[in-house]
Automatic annotation (TrEMBL):
Originating species: Niastella yeongjuensis
Protein's name in the database: Beta-lactamase-related domain-containing protein
Residues that span the membrane, as ranges: 7-27
Any coiled-coil regions, as ranges: none
Domain called Beta-lactamase-related: residue spans: 170-440
Pfam families registered for this protein in UniProt: Beta-lactamase (PF00144)
PANTHER family: BETA-LACTAMASE-RELATED (PTHR43283), BETA-LACTAMASE-RELATED DOMAIN-CONTAINING PROTEIN (PTHR43283:SF7)
InterPro entries with a match to the protein in the record: Beta-lactam-related, Beta-lactam/transpept-like, Diverse_Enzym_Activities
Length: 459
């Protein structure tokens, strides 16, 4: 009898521990599930004008996001997410700003924020791309048209790396400054804005470049973060943030609660959240890919130009100058653009951004970025042993298993690219005069489609 009672006590204790852990984990994880789903649904419905059922089937059809319930409120352009009725999170849509999760500030405070956004200039779409949307009827003589179309067909139909549909929405090829191939999935076209996810980091780097050119920022100087003065973090340079070598104690893990998911889905001021994290490594010595570093860069941009100028600054100083008029940068609750993740633009506009870097920061005869900015961008970070990362752009460095071959073995060594979750990509290949844009939901075999596109050019 005594043995039975002891066993029962152990069982009850273990059940209590399991229950406590479950409650603790749910308390941390449920708001992330609710927030991710509400934000994704809101942007898809109110910014992209998509069918909610398609969003549930494609973007939100994975565990644990499927455990959430997402309710659309057309009357105030918002979406509420919850998990079994708990951990409700709301994302609100505002014209010109896309969607924002309500965190830390009240919904009324966020809706009352004023953003002095620039008007989109009148456009002559009959002007030749990239300054308009008119495409050339002729292709270069060294282009194997049939091979290119087969390569695009293959890319559009390619399954995801994990099996199942990849939902590729757009595939676009630019050769020698001209669009030579373009394809869209049903329901999407050249006017559809699509999420860039972490390609937003590369956009942010470009805006930093504009400020460097103006003499307002210096990559080699300490990052201008007020909270870091007179602390061990004042040694972190702007360059360390650009090269993902800040040394901050941060983990980029989206599989559960982490600094990354807490920042994106639980915090109203993402840059301030990052500024408070402790230092784990000596700055510049350890490469650690971090969305948080990019959000610090976004906060630095805001503090450098000032609150009144900031909302319009990225557009007026850079993106509208390169005819990137579809771009929408979504802010966090504090009003700072989520510089790590939340940009929307058409495939053609993402290609325009790639073309800016292909042309060494020059657009229509104007040097928008510092003369050496692209050269510095493609220099591998000293802390990145695989030589895969520069200034918020990825490089074609070493393979994971074999350092004697490139990461993308069938692409040239000079290729660099903006990369986002789910396989959003702008590949820039100067030696082949190529820019390749792919937008979708899940990653595919990028090396395969790059190989096929490159093979369509006969040098």
């Amino acid at each position: 009898m005594k043995l039975y009672k002891n066993i029962l006590r152990v069982i009850l204790f273990l059940l209590a521990v399991a229950l406590a852990y479950g409650i603790w984990y749910a308390w941390r994880a449920f708001p992330i599930i609710s927030g991710y789903g509400a934000k994704s649904m809101a942007s898809a419905v109110f910014l992209q004008h998509r069918n909610p059922e398609d969003v549930l089937k494609e973007e939100l059809n994975f565990f644990p996001i499927t455990k959430g319930t997402y309710t659309i409120h057309p009357e105030d352009s918002s979406v509420t997410g919850s998990v079994w009725g708990f951990a409700k999170r709301k994302a609100i849509y505002r014209t010109g700003l896309g969607c924002t999760l309500v965190n830390d500030l009240s919904e009324a405070e966020i809706r009352n924020q004023h953003f002095n956004l620039p008007a989109i200039p009148a456009q002559n779409r009959d002007t030749a791309w990239p300054y308009g949307d008119k495409l050339s009827d002729s292709l270069p003589p060294n282009m194997d048209t049939k091979a290119l179309q087969l390569a695009i067909d293959s890319a559009m139909q390619m399954p995801s790396k994990k099996g199942g549909p990849a939902y590729t929405r757009a595939f676009l090829v630019v050769y020698d400054g001209k669009i030579v191939g373009e394809r869209y999935a049903p329901g999407f076209n050249k006017n559809t804005v699509q999420i860039g996810w972490s390609m937003t980091k590369s956009l942010t780097s470009a805006v930093i470049g504009v400020l460097v050119k103006a003499g307002r920022l210096n990559p080699n100087a300490p990052a201008p973060v007020p909270e870091w003065q007179h602390t061990d973090k004042e040694k972190i340079r702007l360059k360390d943030l650009l090269q993902q070598s800040s040394g901050l104690d941060y983990t980029e893990n989206f599989g559960g609660p982490s600094e990354a998911t807490n920042m994106l889905f639980k915090r109203g001021n993402m840059g301030a959240f990052m500024a408070e994290l402790p230092l784990k490594y000596e700055p510049g010595t350890v490469f650690s890919y971090s969305s948080g570093n990019a959000n610090l860069l976004g906060r630095i941009i805001r503090q450098t130009v000032g609150d009144s100028i900031y909302p319009a600054f990225p557009y007026k100083a850079l993106f509208h100058k390169i005819n990137m008029y579809s771009l929408v940068l979504e802010p966090d609750a504090s009003g700072t653009y989520v510089s790590s993740s939340y940009s929307y633009a058409t495939a053609r506009d993402f290609a325009r951004f790639g073309l800016l870097y292909y042309n060494n920061g020059v657009w229509n005869g104007e040097q928008l970025l510092p003369v050496n900015w692209v050269k510095e961008t493609v220099q591998p970070a000293a802390a990145n042993k695989q030589q895969r990362y520069g200034y918020q752009f990825w490089l074609n460095g070493q393979d994971d298993k074999d350092p004697t071959i490139r990461w993308f073995p069938d692409a040239p060594a000079d290729m660099f690219f903006a990369d986002g979750y789910g396989g959003q990509n702008i590949f820039i290949i100067p030696s082949k005069k190529l820019i390749v844009v792919r937008l979708g939901v899940r990653t595919v075999d990028e090396n395969k489609y790059l190989k096929e596109v490159i093979a369509a050019i006969k040098n």
